[in-house]
Amino acid sequence: MQNETKKKLDYVLSVLKIQQIYSNACAVLSFDMETVCPPKGMSNQGETSAYLENESFKLSKDPKYIEAYEYLYNHLDELDEFDKVLVKGLHKSYVQTKNITPEMNLEWSKAFNQSWVNWLNAKEKDDFSIFAPSLSDVREINLKTISLNEERKPISYDNLLDMYETGMTGTDLDRYFNECKERLVPLLKKIMASPKKIRTDFLSRPVTDEQQKAMSEYLLNTIGFDFTRGALGTTEHPFTNGLAKDDIRVTTHYYPTAFLSSMYSVIHEGGHALFEMFQPDENYDHYINGKKTMGMHESTSRFYENRIGRSREFVHLIFPKCKEIFPNVFFDVTEEEFYEAINVVEPSFIRTEADEFTYTFHIIIRYELEKEIINNNAKIEDLPKMWNDKYEEYLGIRPSTYKEGILQDVHWSFGFGYFPTYALGNMYNAMYYNKMLEEIDAPGLVESGNIQKVNDWMTERVWKRADRLEPKDWIKEITGRDFTVKDFLDYLEEKYSKLYNL
Amino acid sequence: MQNETKKKLDYVLSVLKIQQIYSNACAVLSFDMETVCPPKGMSNQGETSAYLENESFKLSKDPKYIEAYEYLYNHLDELDEFDKVLVKGLHKSYVQTKNITPEMNLEWSKAFNQSWVNWLNAKEKDDFSIFAPSLSDVREINLKTISLNEERKPISYDNLLDMYETGMTGTDLDRYFNECKERLVPLLKKIMASPKKIRTDFLSRPVTDEQQKAMSEYLLNTIGFDFTRGALGTTEHPFTNGLAKDDIRVTTHYYPTAFLSSMYSVIHEGGHALFEMFQPDENYDHYINGKKTMGMHESTSRFYENRIGRSREFVHLIFPKCKEIFPNVFFDVTEEEFYEAINVVEPSFIRTEADEFTYTFHIIIRYELEKEIINNNAKIEDLPKMWNDKYEEYLGIRPSTYKEGILQDVHWSFGFGYFPTYALGNMYNAMYYNKMLEEIDAPGLVESGNIQKVNDWMTERVWKRADRLEPKDWIKEITGRDFTVKDFLDYLEEKYSKLYNL
Q1: Do A231 and B38 touch (CB under 8 A)?
Q2: Alpha-carbon distance A494 to nearest alpha carbon in chain B (angstroms)
Q3: B123/B214 same-domain check
Q4: Average of pLDDT values for B60-74?
Q5: Contact present, B20 and B287 (Cβ < 8 Å)
Q6: pLDDT of B237 higher than 90
Q7: Which of A102, A206, B4, B254 sits at a 20 to 30 Å CA gap from B122?
């Protein structure tokens, strides 16, 4: 590396170090607002967060900093692999945000925070009108953000999608989701018509928070979550927050008569956490640990939740502990009954509580609405009805409250384009799980409690290069094949045909 | 107000507004480290906090800012009462800290954070040697801080005391504590010799965390804590943190066989919280809400804990709820037995668990050690023995572990001079409770659950002007009398002579 290049790189890293401090502080503030902050303290804390976020944003506008990474961008061949990824990312982000001023940025931060507070409030009161104006603001900010983005024109939903899943377009997704519909709609009809009766009565037996907490901790330990580098909290909407290299937190909620909800949300969020915990240290040293896409992330969380968590082998592994922690639930339940119950297919309103099979429909519905909102400027006040109509069309059920309808998810309080990543995650993990099966006996390892070996494979093959590759290249490198929906659909068809004796 | 004065004042307020943002962020980070942050995430988060704290400190070094409040300091007569307090405080703080550079400040912040982490670790492992080097560092920093302080010389323990309780000196405290010893030592002997048997067996009956949490919430509601502006968390060492005007948090701990510990720590911290919640809004608008001394604060927390919380009337009020929440504890206990049990006098090791009577000895011990540490440069390695010797001397008991000895309290991980404020708090509240009794029927109000009326008196008489007055003036304004230990000692003598039939 030339002396000049080294100097520029050092300068860039020194700015990133300070930005990371701000980002760490904002992550703590955000975690606190989600978990502890009292209602009337929210707006003050939102302002604190917006201020700090904007201090960091201002640093990104420092001409010396921009000049330095642009210089590096013109000397990429002198950089190592990690710094190349870093500098390309900085350049891309520069082109995307060069027209956004700190004033705009601060205003938007505050608007997003207000939007989130309104969403919480609207959901609690089951009143869409409280959230509607924010939804409109968020759309305006999203459109403004992409209109100022010099990287790609014309403005459309694709620009937002690209923020969460680089390289994916609406055209791609239309094709993938059509394939899903073609195969899953008739299959769902068959399942619903199946005479097979799956016992689920025990799933609503009452349990205490303390029992559920003990189970959550057991499950996290079982999949390999490191409690010296992470924590478990409670929130209405479970999430994972990687606050720092050695501080990865997951949350769950405890419902007194639905213990599966915390169990599987914990495994899901635990999957996200493992990705953060076991990525290469170099990602942090080179400030590229945020490069992995949400689809990659969801592929991991849904891998642990479904491919591991809802497998016969996992049930066999955890069943003795289930009986120990929830004796009042499992006293008359067999292992087979438990396996069937966690895989029962039943159209339902809440995405995060949906079974693995109908889950994809929840995403398709949101995807289609998002495109309407962004590309066709759908009227905000029409959205609740559009939402309900789609649930009726795809799943044959109609929400009767906003809470179980359009207000259920937090995502639209900060923007559009995220939801498809959940479905893509399922598709990615179906592909790489098939690859994993060629190389290690994953089901056997799970059954014997040796999930660490599965994590090792994930570390080496799935997580290691995620921050350095775009999704389509990444999945091809792991599996040797181009992206396809087929593995996922084949898996669902096989598993559920067997379960329902089709 | 002259135009120039107005301009200067606006500038000062604009800087304070930003400093308040940093201070809010640091308070959230600190609360998070106490309650959630995983062990390996601590040092990173400590660095984040130190960075932000130092950004704020740098603002206080801005020459334009200093010039502005010094200008105001020379034009005090143009300012209103609140701004006068603000400007005097800024001037004082300027004189105290003008020789401290941001580099020193950052280094010290990091050292305090490390010291706290080491204390946690040392306490957990019951190993004083882990904490000893930090204790030495903290002493050095304390001495350095006061040696750079141009306000008062020579350097001694008094300088530290003044940071927590303006106007109090070691000479004062020696006199007050000698009076205490003169009256309390013989009284303690009589109590210990009393044939009166107080039943305490039920205090160690096992309870769940959920029961204790329900009790904590009930108690906070009972004394008037506003949950829309506050929250309750759990930590090993209970505390109160006023993060913002509408965000006042208290913590407690749940011990499975010592439910009184959470009950009375919750009332204590709740008392601190009420002070923060019901101070005048103007304190926040004028950035003077940090002016109240720790002695004033402890007077309030210990007022609720002891004068209200351990009174017959309060026991009468809460006893039905105690039986409802802890049926497994109270099934064979009478109201009178409960009253006696919460007031039993018994020399013990842990300050925060001590009864109201022996509590003062815990403070005297720490006070005498602090003076040795600062004024006589006591050897750090000798402190555990010195601590134990004093417990033997005053209370006739000798700690057998560091945890129940010198490592029990967090305070010395950030400095010396705080402990006396607890004792002063008892003395202040004894004086103002006597005044209160002249004006309202506090016991009757408590017994009938009308604690809000007591809070109203506290708001108007005790809390309202606390940020605007120095302690000695404040207590004189409330009571019409000069500070005295007599009220407190009379109260103890009367209450405990009666309880022990002396």
Answers
A1: yes
A2: 42
A3: no
A4: 96
A5: yes
A6: no
A7: B254
